[in-house]
Amino acid sequence: MRAGTGQTRRAFLRLLTMGAALGATVPIVPLVARADTPYVDPLNRFALSVPDGWVQGRQTVPAILGIWTADDGAASFTVVYTPVDVGSTGDDFASAYLPVLASLPGYTDADRRTVPVAGQDATLLDYYLTEASGRVVRVQQVFVTQGGDGFVLSFRCASADAPQYAMAVGGMVGSFTFGMM
Fold first, then answer.
1. pLDDT per residue over 98-107, tens digit each?
2. Is residue 1 part of a domain?
3. The pTM is what?
């Protein structure tokens, strides 16, 4: 699966939808936050710091490398992996999936900007979705690449609750590194 192909976009949309159902998505404002527990991926693909109160969930989909929730699932943070073309930037990666994201029910764009992640510029997509129940959720996704590897750091919660998680999620995004910490 390479960024930009129809098959890749469909597969990624399925992952994003699964992540949404699991409560997955990305960072609000990448701030330095108190992050207490270092997490190193078992295959050493990435590492990050997890704040107190965030609980690691069980990954049941191979592309979801990590999932953490806070407040009994009211907020979630996931790390999703997909191969990308070697040399792709975070912006290339995000741009390839923006049309897919924009087709999700109730999609409303809030922001798109560059944020520093793992020593490079990554692209943050910030948007709202309306769930079938009518609940509006805030989703923030950071797209970062290294070589042929693409990672999506996703944060998701009820729209009104997003500010209370900003520092914690910002700390997770800000601490993300490739390989061991």
1. 999 999 989 9
2. no
3. 0.81
